[in-house]
Specification:
The complex is a heterodimer of chains A (180) and B (284).
Chain A (H helix, E strand, L loop, with lengths): L1 H7 L5 E2 H12 L10 H11 L3 E7 L7 E6 L1 H12 L8 H14 L4 H24 L6 H30 L10
Chain B lengths: L31 E12 L6 E12 L3 E5 L6 H8 L7 E6 L2 E2 L5 H11 E4 L11 H11 L4 H14 L15 H12 L6 E5 L7 H16 L3 E5 L3 H4 L4 E6 L2 E7 L29
Parallel strand pairs in B: 3-8, 3-9, 6-7, 7-8
Antiparallel strand pairs in B: 1-2, 1-4, 4-5, 9-10
The chains are: A mainly alpha (180), B alpha/beta (284).
Pfam families (chain A): PadR (PF03551)
Protein name (chain A): PadR family transcriptional regulator
Organism (chain A): Microbispora siamensis
Chain lengths: 180, 284
């Protein structure tokens, strides 16, 4: 959550309400679980940690005044590190999805490059799972577990295919071009 | 169907007539078992021109198992057919065992396919009226082996694929997985330089797929060069290397063999640490 919020602040300083709207748009029905106050709690924590700083207060024509937050240098560093780090074998779908959204919004990374890297990572895990599965009988206990792991990795890989299609269709620039 | 390819008849390529000694897996040591250079296959013409395969460069070293994946229509099956001499490129070259094959004449190409390429398809394409053993004997007989030698080889291969006890059965008396194993035995009948498989597990359930993958793994361990076209990530994951195709081109090329040995050396090594073990968290 912290990383995602930081990433959403990369493009420009913003306030909690806007961040929540953008998260809700990216998450769809999954975002309904997102507590209204959660963004503000996260922002407060990030501020305490020195990763964001309250830049100013906006006074909209109607409604309450809004605190506008901006990334600090430390915050920028942390976002860059989050973008670069591999998701790991247990990363869930929503987390990686938000990373792609944040990458595209912030321009910090090319979503397609993240998809490629993730595919290789998952493919290597799947290779390992499959090799182990071939060494076990399908109906042994270990074999059964390995089958479950392989099926789950396969599902993740198929979803990445969909990500690749969607993000290549949205890519604002020529295909295949990195955007470091 | 008219071919777009300007065909150069293979008059100049000498001695496709039998027994040129350089053939067989040994010849592959010199270079890649398979090589594609600027390989292109188009269908149709003018505005309806479709680029099924679009400038593919690919080297498959001898002994490598390669998986070709990609969404349907990406050109992976066409690529396989070009590599195996079942189809002719519109442009580019195909080299098999150090020899260019895309401009060979029909007869020379047919002979070469028979001797040097083993095909496995999604539908097993076995002859319904012949027993498993007879199906496996067939390619050897067509290649000029004596009936005795062909029979001997077939028995050996059926044993290898675990179907010695089904040798006399007709394909209709075998399960889908068993039929596919017979088809693999048949593909191996002439000790091909490469085995090319197109969706070999496409019609199989997970247990039968497991058997086929084990068989491929044994072939891999024995140093057989193998190219498998598949849309199944689990099948692709058992290869040494995976290339993904998009719109007729190679989009990605990933090595999976890491520190894997030639022999079945994965008894427990590498499964902890950064590998599968990382899927579990032991914190409580």
């Amino acid at each position: 959550m912290q990383d995602v919020v930081l990433a959403l602040l990369t493009k420009e300083p913003s306030h909690g309400y806007d961040l929540r709207q953008r998260l809700a748009a990216a998450l769809g029905p999954l975002g309904e679980a997102l507590n209204a106050g959660q963004i503000y709690v996260t922002l407060t924590r990030l501020e305490k940690a020195g990763l964001v700083v309250q830049e100013r207060e906006d006074a909209p024509v109607r409604g309450p005044r809004r605190k506008v937050y901006a990334l600090t240098a430390a915050g920028q560093e942390r976002v860059a590190a989050w973008m670069a780090e591999s998701a790991g074998p247990r990363a869930d779908v929503a987390e990686f999805h938000l990373k792609l959204v944040a990458a595209a919004e912030s321009g910090l990374a090319d979503p397609l490059a993240l998809v490629d890297a993730r595919r290789r990572e998952l493919m290597r895990s799947l290779a390992e799972a499959q090799r182990a599965a071939l060494a076990h009988d399908t109906d042994s206990e270990a074999g059964l577990l390995l089958e479950g792991i392989a099926l789950r990795l396969q599902a993740d890989l198929r979803w990445l295919e969909a990500c690749e299609r969607a993000w290549s269709a949205r890519a604002p620039r020529g295909e295949g071009e990195g955007n470091g | 169907m008219k071919r777009v390819v300007p065909r150069v008849m293979g008059r100049s390529s000498r001695s496709d007539t039998d027994g040129s000694p350089g053939w067989g897996p040994a010849a592959a040591a010199a270079g890649p078992a398979l090589r594609a250079v600027g390989l292109t296959r188009t269908y149709g013409e003018d505005e309806s021109l479709v680029w099924a395969v679009d400038g593919v460069d690919l080297d498959v070293p001898a002994g490598q198992t390669l998986a070709v994946t990609g969404p349907s229509g990406c050109g992976k099956s066409t690529l396989l057919q070009l590599l195996g001499g079942l189809d002719r490129p519109s442009e580019g070259e195909v080299w098999l065992g150090g020899r260019r094959i895309d401009h060979l004449g029909e007869r020379a190409l047919a002979r070469l396919r028979r001797r040097s390429v083993g095909f496995v398809f999604q539908a097993h394409h076995l002859m319904h009226e012949l027993s498993a053993a007879q199906n496996v004997e067939l390619p050897a007989l067509l290649a000029g082996a004596s009936p005795r030698a062909a029979r001997h080889r077939a028995a050996e291969l059926l044993h290898q694929v675990g179907l010695a006890h089904r040798a006399r059965h007709l394909p209709s008396e075998l399960s889908g997985g068993q039929r596919q194993r017979v088809a693999i035995a048949r593909a191996l009948a002439n000790d091909p330089l490469v085995v090319l498989a197109d969706e070999p597990t496409g019609n199989l359930d997970s247990a039968a797929t497991h058997d086929i993958l084990r068989l491929f793994d044994e072939l891999r361990a024995a140093g057989q060069t193998l190219v498998v076209v598949t849309h199944d990530e689990r099948v692709a994951a058992t290869a040494d290397r995976v290339v993904s195709m998009r719109d007729g081109t190679l989009a990605d090329d990933t090595r999976l063999d890491g520190n894997r040995g030639r022999r079945h050396g994965h008894g427990g090594t590498g499964l902890g640490g950064t590998g599968l073990g990382a899927l579990l968290s032991w914190e409580d």
